Amino acid sequence: MKNVALWVGFVAILFAGCKEPEPEPLPEPRPAAPEWSLDQLTVYEVFPRQFSGSGHLNAVRTRIPELQALGVNCVWLMPVHPISQVNMNGTYGSPYAVADYKAVHPDLGDLDVMRALVDELHEAGMLCIIDWVANHTGWDHPWIAEHPDWYTQDGSGNIVIPPGTNWSDVAELNYGSAAMREAMADALRFWSEDVGVDGFRCDYAVGVPTDFWAPVIGELNAARPDAPLLWLAEAEAPALHEAGFELSYSWQGFGAVESVVAAGELPEVISASYLGEVASIPAGHRKLRFVTNHDETSWNAPAPTMYGGVEAMKCAQAITAFLPGVPLVYNGQEVGSDQVLNLFEDVPIDWSTHPELRGWYAALLTARAAHPAFAGTGLAFHPADDVFVAERVHGAGEPRALLVANVRPFSQAFDFGPWWGGDWSEVFTGGGMPASATLAPFEVRMFVR
Prior knowledge:
Layout: H1 2-17, E1 43-46, H2 48-51, H3 57-62, H4 64-70, E2 74-77, H5 111-123, E3 127-133, E4 136-138, H6 142-146, E5 170-172, H7 178-195, E6 199-203, H8 210-222, E7 230-233, H9 238-243, E8 247-249, H10 251-261, H11 268-278, E9 286-289, H12 294-300, H13 303-307, H14 310-322, E10 326-330, H15 357-370, E11 379-382, E12 387-394, E13 398-406, E14 412-415, E15 425-426, E16 436-439, E17 444-448
Parallel strand pairs: 1-2, 1-10, 2-3, 3-6, 6-7, 7-8, 8-9, 9-10
Antiparallel strand pairs: 4-5, 11-12, 12-13, 13-17, 14-16, 15-17
């Protein structure tokens, strides 16, 4: 009897040990990317090294509410990858000299921090796009040693920098290599599917064949049918729009606005530039419009210096944001920073310069994102020698938004008679439209109804 009891106990223990383990809880689903349209986007460019004193991606996470209040709904992070140390320029090197496409620079955090940032932006209703450098890598990228044939070489077999440039810190990739193309596509897949970013600002996009871009864009978009990616080309080539880029740089528009506001050209230069550039892109595609960016701030001058003061910068920004397209704000611009944010150095932005400007930017960008006048491309210009005047029209052509910008450093009288009498509200003050006004130097009046 004692043996039977022992045997029963043994069997019970045996079966207890064979019980299937409790299933591990499933991970919480990540927040979904918000819906977006090109007509409602405002892009904010972050240089993580200079965005805060810490230079860490966590600093971006803590300031998401500030970006929301500014009216921003898409954050573009300049390259977050490790920076090549070989042939490095300056003290810290260029973030565009990538040493590893599937990693985050340790000074910025790691992939978990990056995923958390993407999730928190999504929770706030914002997109996250990252800079992508597909034309070249840094000189200590593993591909240099492992796959030298993945790089362009001269007649002696030496890997070369991109031809026609002085970019000594990078090596040009060889798109004649099918294996390299697949490795590049795989890295893009990783950031889209694993990290969950919402798109790519593609640096020097014209340096990469369109027959690479078209299939990759098609494949990555198809993998996210409910959360389409945003593809931004740093270029003005119409062929890139045909390859799948919905958005491309408006260098032409940037130059036109600068020439009018900073150099005294007639306002009609802006309208002529706009009409010329939009004729070259497919319907539904847009231009990225800016008054500065990391290149201009680093190599030309900060925006207040470039345009001749903070009021002139605001005038240029209002004109730029009023035109059909997607407006860009570069970090520090919203407080009128006059610092030279050198690409190769660490210059933390001084956020105390003109903090009151944030309210002005918020009024401009919020109105632009919310008001139906800014949907589509309905636009009418009104010639004036020293005042830029334009309407955004909606539906049957009824004017729904009006911009009047004094583009000169002296006061001018302006007659609002052709528009006066409607139910207009001024974006920056909330007041109505006057019959006439004296515009201060570089003053902007923007109305919606």
